[in-house]
Amino acid sequence: MRSHTLTRSTAETEITVTVNLDGTGAYDNQTGVGFFDHMLDQLARHSLIDMTVRAQGDLHIDDHHTVEDTGIALGQALAAALADKRGVRRYGSCLLPMDDALVRTALDLSARPYLIWNVDLPTPRIGTFDTELVREFFQALSTHGGITLHVDMLHGLNSHHIAEAAFKSVARALREAVEVDTRKADAIPSTKGAL
Hints:
This protein is α+β, with helices and mostly antiparallel strands. The protein has helices at 34-47, 64-82, 132-145, 159-178; strands at residues 3-9, 13-20, 27-30, 50-57, 91-98, 101-108, 114-118, 125-126, 129-130, 148-155. A 4-stranded mixed beta sheet has the order 1-2-4-3, covered by helices on one side. A 4-stranded mixed beta sheet has the order 5-6-10-7, covered by helices on one side. A hairpin with a 2-residue loop joins strand 5 (91-98) and strand 6 (101-108). Helix 1 (34-47) packs parallel to helix 4 and helix 2 runs parallel beside helix 3 (132-145). The two termini are 20 Å apart.
């Protein structure tokens, strides 16, 4: 089983994340930030990565530390579950429509973190959720997961639809990338022999 549990504890947050790359997309995410929990549920469901997140953060200040630190912990847990990445497909992509929104994701489990984020959320908030935090989450996930991640919004009018399409698109690309390639299940997917 390619799984990992990680706890990250700081003066601002206490977060425990469990992931199982060979799951069915089961999820149980509780961060205290309702919209973010909904997005994490989408990430799990559409990547088929079982995910449990428990976060307690300084929400009396704002949601920033909780969202960013969850991205850090989730990225670290994914990297640990992938280990040396032997047998994975490595690359994934998805073009995902959601009503008015169309989001394209391409990613590489390269161990070279880089985020290209061409997503414009037209409102500053979705309910009480600060839309700037969508990018902050993916920046943390990319950096600490060692993922080259490109996310491009091709169309979109509604902030909720755009954000959800981004999470689902990344999820589908991640699902493809972490899958075991049965033709090369014993090989590191790089001519260098390491990722």
